[in-house]
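Let's practice the habit of predicting before peeking. Look at the sequence and jot down your guess about where helices and strands might fall. Then scroll down.
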Amino acid sequence: MLFSSFRDGRRSRYNLYMEVPRVAFEAQRDKEQLLIDRGEQYTRAIQLYVRKFNRYPPDFAALENTQSFASSAAATKIDEQKNV
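Done guessing? Here is the structure:
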């Protein structure tokens, strides 16, 4: 009885050590997917900027300012519609 519990504890530690690389691999894949998604968002933002201003943005700040302006303009429209 004593030896079987020792073996089970040893086996569970072994399983834990086998899971660590898999968990690290999945965490890396999650980070990579986040970067891919962020890149697609920037691609879309640049496309919309070019469509609106007929030129490429000079820097990322121009994209961010355009997005915040669009968000605040949309919020203003929603507020106006609620007040009517």
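How did you do? Residues 2-83 form one domain.
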